[in-house]
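Bumping with the actual sequence this time:
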Amino acid sequence: MLDRRNLLRGGVATAVVAGATPARAQVNQLNMFIPAAPGGGWDSTGRAIERACRAAGIVQNFQFDHAPGAGGAVGLPRFLQQRRGQGDALMVAGMVMVGALITSRSPARLLEATPVARLTGEALVVVVPAASPFQNMRQLVDAFRQDPARISWAGGSAGGSDHILAGLIAKAVGVEARRISYVGFAGGGPSQAALLGNQVSVGIAGYSEFSELIRAGRLRALAVSAAARIPGVDVPTLREAGVAADLSNWRGVFGAPGISTAQRDALIGVMDRMQRSPQWQEELRRNNWSGLFLPGDDFRAYVQAEFVRIEGILRDIGLTQ
């Protein structure tokens, strides 16, 4: 008999019998690390994972830790240093962090963490306060062309998907990206407050972050960044408004550095079971997310390619050298 202590490491229990196929590893708790403030897309993703896993009976125990700042460039080093070897730790991250790490020239490397799975894709939405004089995207673009400095854009941290979309819009309408008056926030909550307080002209975020305020009439949606309209959402695309740009923001989860293959595979197994559950499908529907499940080594290769792609976009629109 093997010592039970040797079978319990980092929150992962694996039953092994000599000469038999190892049983499915079990993750009894997930410590969710959110490198952003509460209320934003990464926090929403983490909470959706919690709800789906609890409801589907996959994992019941969750703890959350937030470390906001610089599009994840503040939280990532903390996750890498403090969670090393912990098999029950999961960090939510995505395209925003890729851009933020590039623009900030951070020494921390996202792939020092352990890629577990890409989970979702989401269109961004361009919104203005309800009292804004801009009734549609064409009016906003006209004002932006005439005086770029007059229009202030609120979004996530510099170099993230919101900033990238603002740059793509600028490029598409003939405005130099460096002339964008961009105000970056550490999370969706502060960005929403700035918009509702009429402190900025326009905001960009994942559609789910602003959906309730749009439905309540407190924000006006001008366009979405999807290639086609979001089903059930009566908001035109940027291309319908004459702006030749589209962008989808992906999100996924990463394990701690230094975990074993068995620990990584156990986390992948949890995410795989979750994404196949009806509870997760309901989360996708409710948040207007696309399911883009991509696990393990394939996800690692995808992230590597994203750094190349996003750096090219940032350079093309003048947001990095």
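The tokens above came from a reply further down the thread. The radius of gyration is 21 Å.
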